[in-house]
Amino acid sequence: MKQRILAILVLAQCGAAMAAGYSGLGVASISKETLEQFRPKALDPALSGKIQRYLDLRSPGSGALSPDGKSLFFTWRVTGVNQIWRIDGPQGFPVQMTGGTDTAALDAITPDGKWLVISRDRNGEENPGLYLQPASGGELNVIQHKNGIRTLFEFLSDDGRYVYYRSNDEQPDRYTLYRYELAGARTERLFSEPGSWEVMDHRPDGKLLLANALSNSNNEIFEYDPAGKTLTPLFGQGEGVDYTALYGPAGELIVRTDKFGEFHRLYRWTAGVFTPITPDIKWNVSAFTLDTPRQKLYYEVNEGGYTRSYALDARTGKPLGLPAFKEADSVTVGSGTRDGRYRVLMVSRTTAPPTSFVFDWKTGKTVQWVLPSSPEIATGGFARATLESYPARDGARIPMFVRRPARCSPAPCPVLVYFHGGPESQSRPGFSAYAQMFVDAGFIFVEPNVRGSAGYGKTWLHSDDGAKRLDVVTDIEDAARHIRANWGANGKAPRVGVLGGSYGGYSTMLAMTMFAGAYDAGVSNVGMANLVTFLQNTAPYRRANRMAEYGDLQKNREALVKLSPVTYTDRLKAPLMIIQGASDPRVPVGEAVQMYEAARSRGVRSELILFADEGHGTQKRDNRVLEIGHTLRFFETWLKER
């Protein structure tokens, strides 16, 4: 008992010391001298040119059709960052709508087709502003864009008079709901209550379906009447359950939830009663939507990472036939015209960039609108992602997607294990120029979906909540154990590297410290080094949400310290590179700096790269080249025989 108390005290002291290491987030929290010291160095021109060619393998977003179905607006990274483009007919010549170095995203098109509603961010800060632009092109007219403030589009009224949006301009940790009148350029405050509120849907009479998100998988559903300013709880209050809801064709609600089983399913909710719509299968209904007339219900099923899309008559539940696409890893449903006639479908295959098609319900024809780019590289030979698994130490089977080079010389191939972000996310198969870069460089590229990942039921998803993460985080080490024991050749085990971004970056640092010796080199991108300082310094609007996943700063502090990579820096011995955007609002730049300093104090071969003009991951093309290039260089140096 005394030993346990002593251990707790030591961990608490360690956590207190780490918490004092830095404070704040964003580019203002770090000195210009530090940014300059760790600015990425230029790459070898041959390597840079090779990466540039891969980045030219790009595909437009699925896009949104104009109300008359004659034009398609979509995002594309042709200029280096996502901008909005327009084509006036299938496979027409694209016209660029927005420009500059800041990303832009299309939120909506007014019912008369005259205006676009656009979101724009600066330097990856994730504090976007909201703008209007003529659909014919021209200057952007600001609705709201304030420094350090998030302005997030909610919906456009059916008559096109109002843009509804939410913003944390009153309190940094909660959102206020506003509506903006286009004709008069006037803003009206509609709703402001403590919580993380968003609009899920709206009715013609003005009533709003609101969700208060307590975490990424726990929300409460309410109906709000702006006229009477009344908020009515519907379901989810105090349940700790995941819900998504839309108004149905007869005033009922269509609800996606896993309340009644292991997997998400669609239900019709009427007067407190849930009636199933979709079949009881061992896969999640991962997304759904209704067309504007509320006649057709579209939904997507996540079959172990492969997305299948379906359509139903919204009133009767009768299946409606969507077109089939051969050898597709996923088919997702995009936006549609307001009359419900046309629908955008996005198709992803391993051997070609994702492609958007427009399906016409009236004629039954499917037309490819946008042609993806694949200059100088034949994508038909890209490695297919095969679904495999490895055993965890407690017997659980951990699914993983594996891409292998056609040959390895000398054998065995070095292996890279890529952990996804989230953690409530999922690695998927399909086209990936990023993964193929490593495959073509001679690496086996592995993407596990460890416990805590989405897509495998709520038990799997919640198995790492809070302190329970200590029981399953060993999935990280078990991946390397399996690879070393089973993927050798010529009497040798392969060298194994680890990488990932966000939670994947955290997993990488944990792999290199808590599980030192499991991996031979690691590259962590925008990862958390210390869960205590991370939660203390992340953006206020995210803190409560992330504590629901990782643990409370007070109640679960011991577990947070035990789960922090910096707690185990005394074990660190293999080479580690850390990459971070200074403007990151999610993972403060101080996380990267403190981990780098800890590694250097241990004499470990380590590198730190800071992007002064990026946030949670690189968006700008030149920075993307540097990030990938240095990652490739690092693994070439430490995982290949010399």
TrEMBL record:
Pfam families: PD40, Peptidase_S9. GO terms for biological process: proteolysis. Residues 1-19 form the signal peptide. One of its GO terms (molecular function) is serine-type endopeptidase activity. Residues 430-641 form the Peptidase S9 prolyl oligopeptidase catalytic domain. It comes from the Bacteria. Keywords: Hydrolase, Protease, Serine protease, Signal. PANTHER family: DIPEPTIDYL PEPTIDASE FAMILY MEMBER 6, SERINE PEPTIDASE S9 FAMILY MEMBER. This is Peptidase S9 family protein. It comes from Paludibacterium paludis. The lineage of its organism: Bacteria, Pseudomonadati, Pseudomonadota, Betaproteobacteria, Neisseriales.
